[in-house]
Amino acid sequence: MHHLDTGKLGEQFALEYLKKKEYTILRQNFRAGKGEIDLIVRSPEGCLVFVEVKTRSLDGFGGPEEAVGRKKQDMISRTAGAFMVQSGYDGEIRFDLIAVLLQHGNLKQLRHAEDAFF
């Protein structure tokens, strides 16, 4: 499976998971400058959540979470700021990470880390 297909499939699993948890999906693949945020959602408690989804086919080279280093976190933060300016949002926010592990195109495991950075 091509890595772009893997990423899109992981995002679909993440969306389904968040919907089941009663999150409201606001935007998918929001871009600003060089940055992109995979999912922007509102938590059931009303918090604006910027979600980075990392998907891997196998867990052999470390977990998907390990792919979100400081540089990536900074880019997500700047992109989130651009979204907040564009939307006029001035409330509570948090940054979550959803790690998706696939096996033969099927969901093997999904881990949701709330308030994963900053």
Question: What does this molecule look like?
Answer:
With 118 residues, this protein is an alpha+beta fold. The chain has one domain: Trna Endonuclease, Chain: A, domain 1 (3-Layer(aba) Sandwich). 31% of the residues lie in helices and 38% in strands. Strands 1-2-3-4-5 form a 5-stranded mixed β-sheet. Strand 4 and strand 5 form a beta hairpin. The longest helix has 18 residues. The radius of gyration is 14 Å and the shape is globular. The mean pLDDT is 90.
Low-confidence stretches: none
Report how far apart the termini are: 33 Å
How many domains? The number is 1
Count the E strands: 5
Number of helical elements: 2
CATH topology, anyone?
Trna Endonuclease, Chain: A, domain 1
CA radius of gyration? 14 Å
SSE class: alpha+beta
Q: Considering DSSP H and I runs of 4 or more, what fraction of the residues is helical?
A: 25-40%
* Average predicted confidence as pLDDT: 90
User: What percent strand?
Assistant: 35-45%
Order of helices and strands: HEEEHEE
Describe how the helices and strands are arranged:
Blueprint: H1 3-20, E1 24-32, E2 35-42, E3 48-56, H2 70-87, E4 93-103, E5 106-113
Parallel strand pairs: 3-4
Antiparallel strand pairs: 1-2, 2-3, 4-5
Keywords:
118 residues, alpha+beta, Trna Endonuclease, Chain: A, domain 1, five-stranded mixed sheet, 2 helices, 31% helix
Short description:
The chain has 118 residues and is of the alpha+beta class.
